[in-house]
Design goal:
Length: about 250
């Protein structure tokens, strides 16, 4: 059983459309969709926005469905010049940029765990990178030229990058500069990944994260993010995860 989480149903709607033998379970104000996706047993759920919502969802998913791994997919905002709209970021180290218990402990360090970040599963990360590259090779099968032009998607690239999560929607240059000053290695920002990564670390469940860049975390981010999530994000998830499931066949 593979658990797949996104913050919004729009980000995985195309996956839901392809889910066979669907069973719907309602718990904790969440809807879990269990079934078969490309001949793999999966459970899909959208967590809602933010670290608490996503951590709650991940914990429920682990306790009730016992997944062999969890993949978080969805959109994110780039804070680096080399990462552009339409690019794919496979997360390496996940930071909570708003965690600061100093002077008791160092900034970003999670109390009692003694670490400032959580690393995604290395083997699965590498497989997801290959899956994303395969998706880009067949990009036109999923994203039309009209859609590429509408969202200014050029030639998408795949990046292995650190990701920072926090309970803010980043859309101002001051917010970006603060994060880059404190965590210069971070490639993109979002609101859930590091919280899910922490839950998976504590439960010893392999964790991966795939983010599609919807915006540059600038003044237009709130508009670009919503439209991109509705029209593009789940098509990326479909193509990448279809390839991933092919690579992990027994």
């Amino acid at each position: 059983m593979i658990g797949i989480i996104s913050a919004m149903q729009e980000e995985i709607q195309t996956l839901l459309d392809h889910l066979a033998n669907k069973e719907i379970i309602h718990k904790g104000k969440r809807t879990y969709f269990q079934g078969n996706l490309f001949h793999r047993e999966v459970v899909l759920v959208f967590s809602r926005w933010g670290k608490v919502a996503s951590a709650t969802t991940a914990t429920q998913l682990i306790n009730d469905f016992n997944p062999s791994e969890i993949i978080f997919t969805g959109v994110a905002g780039s804070i680096q010049d080399h990462i552009n709209i339409g690019d794919i970021v496979i997360g390496k180290n996940l930071f909570q940029y708003d965690m600061d218990a100093s002077p008791l402990i160092a900034p970003f360090e999670i109390p009692l765990l003694g670490r400032a970040f959580f690393e995604s599963h290395l083997i699965n990360r590498n497989l997801l990178e290959k899956s994303a590259l395969n998706f880009i090779e067949k990009f036109d099968n999923y994203i039309s030229l009209t859609e590429k032009d509408k969202f200014n998607i050029g030639d998408p690239e795949v990046h292995i990058e650190d990701i920072a999560s926090g309970d803010q929607f980043i859309s101002e240059s001051g917010q970006i500069q603060t994060i880059k000053m404190n965590l210069p290695q971070v490639g993109c920002v979002e609101m859930e990944g590091a919280a899910v990564a922490q839950v998976c670390f504590e439960y010893e469940i392999p964790f991966s994260i795939v983010r599609t860049i919807s915006d540059k975390a600038n003044d237009n981010a709130h508009v670009e993010f919503q439209v991109f999530a509705n029209e593009i994000a789940s098509k990326y998830a479909l193509g990448i995860l279809k390839n991933y499931f092919e690579l992990i066949k027994d």
